[in-house]
Amino acid sequence: MRKVCVSLLAGVFLAFTGSSLLAADDTKETDRVQNAGQVMTEILNVPDDIPQDILNKAYCVVVLPSVLKAAFIVGASYGRGVMTCRSGPKFDGLWGAPTMMALEGGSVGFQIGGEATDFVLLLMSDRSAKGILTSKVKLGADASAAAGPKGRTASAATDATMRAEILSYSRARGAFAGVSLEGSTLRPDNDANTKLYGKEVNAEAIVLKGAVKAPPSAKLLLRTLDHKSPHRKA
User: Fold this and answer.
1) Considering only CA atoms, which of 147, 187, 152, 191 is closest in space to residue 167?
2) Nearest to 170 by CA among 229, 219, 105, 109
């Protein structure tokens, strides 16, 4: 009887501590999703932001908040963030549950300043969206990339920019501008997805199969994008 009681107590303890550890484990991911929503909201409310017609054509948006230059030249060498795509088989519905992403290497570390920099990438084709959901994609090689135009319209954008599959922007010290990320790679961060959603789930299942519901931390990000660009326009 005593052994049974001890076993039951041990089981209760493990269940409690396990759930506590899981809750603590997703703190960084939850914060990152919330920060991505704040970054997107602030960027879309500045006078010279992402052109509306460009945003309306985007299939997915990647937001990497507070990337530090040191992260690209010391140790882990990548920045982390989130990606959300329009729902539906044709990527034309409201914005869906986010998947965690990682931006690696290239010359990024020399392009950004010593302070924290926010990056926003727009995926302008279903090819680039599906490619990034399933594997590591090198910008400029596996998918054409260009610095994104800014302003209320894209009338000043070059033909090369308009043909690019991925458009990228940066914000540092309050300055918002298009930035070239060619040579960098973007990949799903499925370990972070597991922490965020509390179970093993990959980027493809999250975005293309609707395997999970958006977490509460994504409320601001999705609400902002749904308000600014609820449906994709060809």
Assistant:
1) 147
2) 109
Banded model confidence at residue 21, pLDDT cuts 50, 70, 90? very low
Express as a percent the part of the chain with pLDDT over 70: 76
Q: What is the DSSP string of the chain?
A: -HHHHHHHHHHHHHHHHHHHHHHHHTHHHHHHHHHHHHHHHHHTTSTT-S-HHHHHH-SEEEEEEEE-THHHHSTT-EEEEEEEEBSTTTT-SSB---EEEEEE-TTHHHHS-SS-EEEEEEE-SHHHHHHHHHS-EEBTTTB-EEEPP-SSSSTT--HHHHH-SEEEEEEETTEEEE---TT-EEEE-HHHHHHHHTS---HHHHHHS--SPPPGGGHHHHHHHHHH-SS---
Q: Are 118 and 39 spatial neighbours (Cβ–Cβ below 8 Å)?
A: yes
Which residues, at least 6 apart from 85, have a Cβ–Cβ distance to it below 8 Å? 59, 60, 61, 91, 95, 96, 123, 129, 207
CA distance 21 to 81: 22
- 114 pLDDT higher than 70: no
Task: Report the b/e string of 121-130 with b at 16+ CB within 10 A.
Answer: bbbbbeebbb
Domain ranges of the chain: 28-228
Predicted local confidence at residue 158, as pLDDT: 63
6-17 burial by CB neighbour count: b if 16+ within 10 A, else e? eeeeeeeeeeee
Q: Which two tokens stand for residue 23?
A: 């809750």
